[in-house]
Structure formats: structure tokens, C-alpha cells
Design goal:
The chain is mainly alpha-helical. It contains ten helices and four strands; from the N terminus they run αααβαβββαααααα. Strand 3 and strand 4 form a beta hairpin. About 5% of the residues have low confidence.
Amino acid sequence: MNDLVTTWADSFWRASWQAAIASAAVWLICKAIRPMPSAIRCGLWWLVCLRMLLSLVPASVPIAILPPIHETIQTTDVPLSGSLDFSAIVFETKATPVFALWIIGVSAAAALPSLALIRTARKARRARPTQDREALNDLQEIAQRLGMGKIPTLLVSEAPCEVHALGSSVVVSRKVLDGISSEERRMILAHELAHLKRHDTWLSLVPQLARIIFFFHPAAWLAASEFELAREAECDRIAIEALGARRDHYGQLLLKLGVRVDRDITL
């Protein structure tokens, strides 16, 4: 157990200072190069999150390549006085309760996104494929414009929910559909199809996992948050470009849906 705690402490110390340096470097690059394409910003912050996770891998992993050699080793009695490493004992003693607190923190940090995912999946299961021919035609047309080989399923939920892409489906609440125009519906579909085209459901697991494991580290929250902003901005860009939509109309739609509009959409 002590070896596990010591390895954990060493890995987290190394990952923490490396994450701070990487986040600061990417933040300065994004500020220095403006406007930076949202796809590049998204990729840079994703790499920061991935680097944080990879930093947890122990620096040296012993691998047995050759068979063990059995030989007799002659030992010599050495006096014990002054041979104990009290600093290592103190380190392990302090690291053990910190490790326990980290386990509790990770569990708490994972609880909220897990519950949100469960609620979203439950609403998606209750949603039903739409019979709106105009909406289905829009979905097929936009998917073809984006070069998607498989046309996703358009599900309509009677329960209030956010518009989101889940698996190979786009889920929209009935309330949203009833309160928007056909142009706005096309912009929503284009945005969600962009998420599916980019495989954002899977890519987002890395920043989410980094934020959970490093729940105590500001760099993890910064990297994950900036990734999400850049991801949404990139999907906005793809949607606007695919439809040839006006940016002011798209911005009005974001305001109508109560979405943050401080993300930088670069065309």
C-alpha cells in the first residue's frame, strides 16, 4: 500500500507541474495568435488534457525480459544506527490521508457528469423518431453537405431537454422545435451534425476525465473549459459554413436558446 501511495504521489506531482506549464504555454499561444482557428485551439487544449493523463504513467515501469538469475549474494552485517530514512517515512505518512481524500474527491467529481449522462440517456431512450418530413429532408441534406456517409436519426423528446448529439442520433425537444423557424432548425441540425462528424462524444472523454482526476488543479478546469468553448465554436463554424448562414442570425439563435455567445467563431 505504501508503494502504491508513493508512486501515486510522485506521478501526481510530476503531472501537476507539467500540466501547469503546458496550460500556460497554450494559453499564451492562443492569446498571441489571434484569431486562431477554433479547430487548432480545440486540438491544443485536448492535447493538454491528454498530456495530463499520460503524465500519470510511472516514469519507469520494470519489465522482465530475461529470466531471473539465481545466485548467492554474500551479505555483511551493518549497524542500524542512522540508516533509517525518516523523511521517506514522514512522506508516506502524510501522503496516505491525502490519497484517501483524493479518492473521495474523484468520486464526488465523477458523480455530477455521471448523473447528467444518465439523465440524458434516459431522455434519449424516451424520445421517438420524428415524422416531420421537412425536418428529415433538412437532416439528410445537411449530412450530405458535411460528407457524412450515414444519416443520423432525428429524435424528438417530449420532455424538456437540451439539444444534443448522442451516439448516432440528434435529440431535440418538442418545445425547442415548436419555438424556432425552419432556418433556425437547419442551423441547430447543422451544429449537432458537426458534433457527430467530429466524433466529439468520444473526444470529450479525455478532457472530462482529466477534470475528474485533477479536480483540485486549476489547469485541468482551464484546459477542459477552453476545449469545450473551442469545440462548440468549431461546430458553429462548420454549421455556418455548410449552410452559408449569416453570423448575426446564428448569434441570435444562440441567444434564443440561452447559449453562451462569447466563443470565438473564426471562418
